[in-house]
Amino acid sequence: MQTNLVAQDYLSTISTALKKGDTRNMGVFLDKTVDLTFSDNTNTYSKKQALVIIQNFLNKIEPKDYIPLQRGKSQSNNTKFNIGNLYTSNGIYKVYLLFIIKKGNYLLKELRFEK
Question: Domain range holding 94?
């Protein structure tokens, strides 16, 4: 099953995880450490810790939909970003995703939720 997940589009998988509030398939696309920001509070976590924290947060806010609004790529450091709105039972959150490339794969390095 791991092979199938790696073959999937990283952005599609993470968008679906946010939309459904289910991080089960998300771990394949996370870097070894992930910077998580909730409003103005930022911390760096291991992949395993980050998944638990993201899942707990999503359980709390009850996502209804995730709509990507903007995506882009930096030519200087080969990173990609995606900005979208996460619609929840607790209001709308602006979500910022930053991906870095490692061994030919894009991995989520930073995830921000701003109300």
Answer: 2-114
